[in-house]
Amino acid sequence: MRVVDAERRHRDRWDEEIDASINGTLFHRLDFLAYHGGRFAENERHLVLLDGEEAVARLSMTIEDADGRRTARSPYGGSYGSFAFRSVPTYSKSRATVDALIEFLITNDVDRLVLTPPIACCSNRSLDTFTFALLESGFTSASRDVSSVVSLGDGPISVIASSRARYAARKAESTGVTVVHDPPIDAFWSVMKSGYIDRGRVPTHTRDELEQLTATFPRRVRLDLAYLGHEPVAGMASFAITATVDSSFYLCQDPIHSRTQGLSLLILQCLSRSQSEGFTYFDFGTSTAAMEARPALFQFKESFGATGMFRETFEWVRT
Is 242 in contact with 154 (CB distance < 8 Å)? Predict the structure, then answer.
């Protein structure tokens, strides 16, 4: 087993292989990473894990100097990284994979690797054996945050969501709130500004980047808005991470219109859409930050039926 830079033949089939893998996500795809343009061009490496001459996993990372150390990161420019495996590695294959990864890092003078794999629901099989191999080989768990996830297979959304969430949505409808799918980007960004940016939060994407992503991935990156009359009051950007996992990347609500409960109506409608389209899970994103709980955020997401899954980051440091 060895980790090597992807050749042209590997890159030509990269996105196809990611989609066919057991745990590959939108964030592993080269066409998704391409929206960054040249931002990471000098530092990114696209790697394949070879078993003999057969590519059995793919991994993208950046390698750059940070805090006086040569540091590798996966993901970069996305939420999840680490290996996207073609099939579940056995214990011996897991150990060989980790050994090959460490050998690659040492050969490339890397002092530190930060690795954040997808959360468990993004994989169609358990990869805990591989996680064990990481820990057994000297990786440490640098952080364990909690992502709030709704299991869409637990019944109709009207049953999954709490009475509190359903009441809030009915209140929104009674005040005249309506939901528009695929709204104009400027209308969506106006709510992003009032309900996200003006509240001190820095979005991962610029307006133009978000517009580019919706144009490139019209079925996987979608915008939705709640309106009161002609006024946008709440918005959500959703990213279909895999064929079975949808997610919210941005949730925002104009604070002036928070009493309309437009965000609750918007979420319930989007959950119903995801369920009807065949998604099994909906990931609301983390409800913790640096391993500290945000109780109000937990409570809000739990009102829609969300429960927690660990989003774990591993770290390797050369000794």
Answer: no
Residue 202 forms part of a structural domain: yes
Do 81 and 221 share a domain, yes or no?
A: no
Tokens of 134: 């990481």
Tokens of 260: 């309309």
Distance CA 242, CA 23 (A): 8
Distances (CA, A) of 293 to 157, 162, 268, 289, 307: 26, 21, 24, 7, 14
pTM higher than the cut 0.85: yes
Split at pLDDT 50, 70, 90, the class of 68 is confident
Cβ burial, residue 84 (10 Å; 0-12/13-18/19+): buried
Sign (positive or negative) of CA dihedral 256, 257, 261, 267: negative
Start-end of H helices in 128-261: 128-136, 157-160, 163-174, 185-195, 207-216
Helix (H, G, I), strand (E, B) or coil at 292: strand
Per-residue pLDDT tens for 24-46? 999 999 999 999 988 899 999 99
CB 257 within 8 A of CB 226: no
Residue 155 lies in a domain: yes
Strand, helix or coil for residue 279: coil
* CATH at residue 17: 3.40.630.30
217 shares its domain with 97? no
Position 66 scores a pLDDT of 85
User: Which pLDDT tens digit goes with each residue over 95-152?
Assistant: 999 999 999 999 999 999 999 999 999 999 999 999 999 999 999 999 999 999 999 9
Same domain, residue pair 221 and 281: yes
What domain count does the chain have? 2
143-178 residues labelled b (16+ CB within 10 A) or e (exposed): bebbbbbbebeeeebeebbeeebbebbebbeeeebe
Domain limits at 66? 2-138
